[in-house]
Amino acid sequence: MEAIPGLAEALPLTHIEALELGQVPEHLLVVGGGYIGVELSQAMRRFGSKVTVIDRNGRLMSKEDPDVCDALHSLLADEGIDILLNARIKRVSGKSGDTVGVVVEQNGIEKVLNGSHVLVATGRHPNTEGLGLELTGVELTERGYIKVNERPADHRAGVWAIGEVAGSPQFTHISIDDFRVVHANLTGRNRATRAGKSHIVCLPTPNLLVSA
Ligand SMILES: Cc1cc2nc3c(=O)[nH]c(=O)nc-3n(C[C@H](O)[C@H](O)[C@H](O)COP(=O)(O)OP(=O)(O)OC[C@H]3O[C@@H](n4cnc5c(N)ncnc54)[C@H](O)[C@@H]3O)c2cc1C
């Protein structure tokens, strides 16, 4: 996602701070209508916040089937959540927790949304910087995920990367399944996450498990 002027200075909430808030936001502006944005929007709305969700796509949770997205949209709108789609955020001002303004452009028209808090829910990044992974020979992709091998049978077992840090789809059950694959390989079986692909990094270091 491109940098949004003023967003970092506004000290936005992420899902981590949102789950630790000691107050119900008066008006929460949510940047991102994916799973986490939708989930936290609904929760905060039910706690009593006014909530506005802003997404650059034409549908909420746009990776789902269109009928699912539409049903979800109706459900959230019925609960009183304002939803702005096809909206590009131009800049942010103020501080989350005090007053915050978000300027969006939607269908060529600029609008200013004012709220008390802003929550960013635009995706998660792997926490692989500053760990010294380069000293171990572990390679990263351009987006910072650990590079994984494709054919485990061809490589020695050593460092294993599972779950989100290995670029797997971001679901609990996927990470658990990655664990099962690693466990199977550590105990003498030869399994992959799917045909021809496994989350195994080949290194001589014995049995270092990386999941961050
Ligand atoms: C708000 C929210 C709601 C979600 N809801 C769902 C859902 O309903 N269903 C679903 O399937 N998925 C859901 N997910 C996604 C799911 O939580 C993740 O896909 C899953 O937790 C990934 O597991 P993981 O083990 O790969 O990473 P994580 O669960 O992120 O675990 C990584 C661990 O590594 C630790 N760590 C990071 N850096 C370091 C370091 N340098 N040193 C030591 N430890 C470190 C972290 O503290 C963390 O405990 C949700 C995610 C969020 C944020």
Task: Walk me through the structure.
- With about 210 residues, the chain is an alpha/beta fold.
- The protein has helices at about 15-20, 35-45, 65-80, 135, 170-185; strands at about 25-30, 50-55, 80-85, 85-95, 100-105, 110-115, 115-120, 160, 200, 210.
- The longest helix has 15 residues, at about 170-185.
- The two termini are about 20 Å apart.
- Bound molecules: flavin-adenine dinucleotide.
- Flavin-adenine dinucleotide binds near residues 15, 172 and 212.
Do you know the CATH topology of the largest domain?
FAD/NAD(P)-binding domain
Strand order of the largest sheet: 3-2-1-7
In CATH, the homologous superfamily of the largest domain goes by the name FAD/NAD(P)-binding domain
DSSP strand count: 10
Q: Structural class of the helices, strands and pairings?
A: alpha/beta
Percent of residues in helical segments? 10-25%
Strand content: 15-25%
| Ligand species | flavin-adenine dinucleotide
Question: What shape does the CA trace take?
Answer: globular
Q: Report the end-to-end length measured between terminal Cα atoms.
A: 21 Å
- Number of helices, where a helix is a run of at least 4 consecutive DSSP H or I residues: 5
